């Protein structure tokens, strides 16, 4: 996987999970000495998987971090389009639905990590499975220089197969990878904290409440009452933070979850609706069409 123009593919071509979206496994056979990570440049002369166009929606069962040397690059993750510039990083976690852009030229460095390669303490310290964090990161010049230095060191260790026996080579890789990920995790946490500060306390509490309750609660008044705010206060806070209404914010989160379920699972459409708070399938279809200009069935069919 690493060292790729993410347009085409490999010999196994990935697995179909029964929901029509292919999941590509970590290609251990392409790693140097078979270790659980890969790092290499991205560029037009590279390939990933020869048998499947990755500009179709797909998943991976490993982590990818891309550091871009050029831009803009457009990349879809969980049905949100992200635009990365030179010096930005994109972190895609296992299981996320994503799609490479046919019109973008991916240049820079790509790192892949197999789940299980790092010990549990490192996984927890680096927030490897913090799906609530934004995938697109914008380091400042000092942060970028430090991340590049850590990534360059990791790549040198990865490519140096002559100085150490395999067990020590793998141990050094884990330490170097951990150093890079700790810097990356700090950047991700700092970005999240900055978002919270910009958003304000009222919006932050509302956002967290929606994240926990969107599957059963779509009422702005109910959220306002539970949080101890007036409806007017909540409207001002959400509009200042996002430019939209509280109802629009709730609906957007419901639509995202519905899209994930339609893409990830083969649940009947009625059960998808019930899972996001619509016991009546017709009401769910009407809601989904109103917010996406397509029906749930058509959306699912487009991905398959």
UniProtKB/TrEMBL annotation:
Residues 1-21 are annotated as: Disordered. The keyword Zinc does not apply. It comes from the Bacteria. Residues 204-302 form the HTH araC/xylS-type domain. Keywords: DNA-binding, Transcription, Transcription regulation. Transmembrane segments: none annotated. SMART domains: HTH_ARAC. It holds the Pfam family AraC_binding. This is AraC family transcriptional regulator. It comes from Streptomyces virens.
């Amino acid at each position: 996987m690493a060292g790729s123009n993410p347009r085409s593919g490999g010999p196994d071509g990935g697995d179909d999970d029964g929901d029509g979206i292919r999941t590509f496994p970590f290609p251990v056979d392409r790693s140097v000495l078979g270790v659980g990570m890969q790092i290499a440049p991205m560029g037009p002369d590279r390939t990933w998987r020869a048998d499947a166009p990755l500009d179709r929606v797909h998943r991976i069962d490993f982590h990818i971090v891309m550091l871009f040397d050029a831009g803009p690059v457009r990349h879809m993750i969980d049905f949100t389009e992200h635009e990365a510039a030179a010096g930005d990083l994109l972190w895609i976690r296992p299981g996320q639905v994503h799609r490479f852009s046919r019109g973008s030229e991916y240049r820079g460095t790509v790192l892949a990590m197999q789940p299980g390669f790092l010990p549990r303490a490192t996984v927890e310290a680096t927030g490897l499975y913090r799906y609530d964090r934004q995938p697109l990161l914008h380091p400042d010049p000092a942060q970028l220089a430090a991340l590049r230095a850590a990534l360059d060191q990791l790549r040198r260790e990865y490519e140096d197969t002559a100085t150490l026996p395999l067990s020590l080579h793998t141990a050094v890789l884990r330490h170097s990878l951990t150093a890079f990920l700790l810097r990356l995790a700090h950047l991700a946490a700092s970005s999240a904290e900055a978002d919270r500060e910009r958003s304000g306390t009222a919006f932050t509490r509302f956002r967290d409440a929606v994240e926990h309750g969107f599957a059963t609660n779509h009422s702005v008044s109910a959220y306002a009452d539970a949080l101890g705010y007036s409806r007017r206060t909540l409207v001002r806070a959400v509009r200042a933070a996002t430019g939209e209404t509280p109802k629009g914010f709730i609906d957007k989160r419901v639509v995202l979850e519905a899209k994930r379920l339609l893409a990830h699972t083969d649940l009947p459409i009625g059960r998808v609706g019930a899972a996001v708070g619509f016991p009546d399938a017709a009401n769910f279809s009407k809601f989904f069409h109103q917010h996406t200009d397509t029906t749930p069935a058509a959306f699912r069919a487009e991905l398959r």
